[in-house]
Amino acid sequence: MRVEKLIITAAICGAEVTKEHNPNVPYTIEEIAREAYAAYNAGASIIHLHVRYDDGTPTQDKERFREAIEAIKAKCPDVIIQPSTGGAVGMTSVERLQPIYLNPEMASLDCGTLNFGGDEIFVNTENMIIEFALKMNEVGVKPELEVFDKGMIDTALRLHKKGYIKTPMHFNFVMGVPGGISGEIRDFLFLKESIPEDSTFTATGIGRYEFSVATMAILTGGHVRVGFEDNVYISKGVLAKSNGELVEKVVRIARELGREIATPQEARKILGLEVKS
Ligand code: KMH
Ligand code: ZN
C-alpha cells in the first residue's frame, strides 16, 4: 500500500457546539478567520466550514459563507475550503445547498439519515442525497461523503453504481455521534474495509474518540479531521485554546508515527481536486 502524506481537515466551528462548551468556538467572521488561520498554520490543508450569525445561530446563508470564505482566503490563500451542506438539524435542502454555488473545491455530502441525540433527526433521504450529488456534479464540486454508519457507505456505493456519485470517491467516517457508529477499533476497520480500494478516506472521532480515531487513520493510510465541531478538549477535561492546538496534536502524533503532513497543494493532488479559478 502506498501511503500518501496526511491531509488534515479542521472542522473549526460546526453548527451545534457553542461558546458555553468552549469560549474559543468561533461565531463572527473575524473569529472564524482567526480559527481557520490557526488551524492552517498548524498544518491543516482543508477547512470544513459552517457559518454562524454573530450571536452563534447557525446559518447556510450564501452571503455569510461568501464573507467567511473571503476572510479565510485573505489569511490563508491556498487552503482548501469545504463548506458544509449538512448545515444544522431542521434546515431544508434549498437552505443547505447554498454554499455550493460559491464555486468551492469540495463540499460535504451526508449519506443517510440518523438520530442526532434526544429528539433530533438529521434528515438525508435517498432522494435528497441524489439531489445534492447531482447539483454538486453540475457545479463541479467534489463531495466528501460523510458516513455516520456502515449502511451509509452502502448507500454511497449504490448511488455510485447508478451514476450519481463519481470516482475517485472520498469518504469521511464520522464516528461517535449518538445514533451513529462508535469510534472503536473494530468499527473503524469495518468501515475502512468496506470502501473501494481506489477511494480515499478521512476519519473523524467525536468527543473522546477524536485522537484515537485520528491515530487509527494515520496508521492505516487514511486522513484525519479534528476541530471544535467534533471535540472541544485537548485532553481529558482540558479545553483546547484553539483549533490550531487540536491540529498541532495530530501533527505531533503523525510525526511520531512517521507520517508527513500534506500541504494544500499536495492534498489537492491526493484527492484529485479540479483546479479552480
Ligand atoms: N450539523 C450536523 C447536523 C456536515 O457538515 O455535512 C451535520 C453536519 C454534517 O455537520
Ligand atoms: Zn459539519
Any overview of this molecule?
With 277 residues, the protein is α/β, with parallel strands linked by helices. The protein has helices at residues 29-42, 62-75, 93-97, 126-139, 150-161, 185-192, 210-219, 243-256, 264-271; strands at residues 8-11, 46-49, 51-52, 58-59, 80-83, 106-110, 114-115, 121-122, 142-147, 170-175, 200-205, 223-226, 233-235, 238-239. The strands form 4 sheets. The chain has an 8-stranded parallel sheet, sandwiched between helices. Strands 3-4 form a two-stranded antiparallel ribbon. The chain has a two-stranded antiparallel sheet with strand order 7-8. The longest helix has 14 residues, at 29-42. The radius of gyration is 17 Å and the shape is globular. The two termini are 33 Å apart. The model has no long low-confidence stretch (mean pLDDT 97). (5S)-5-amino-3-OXO-hexanoic acid binds at residues 15-16, 84-86, 88-89, 108, 110, 122, 146.
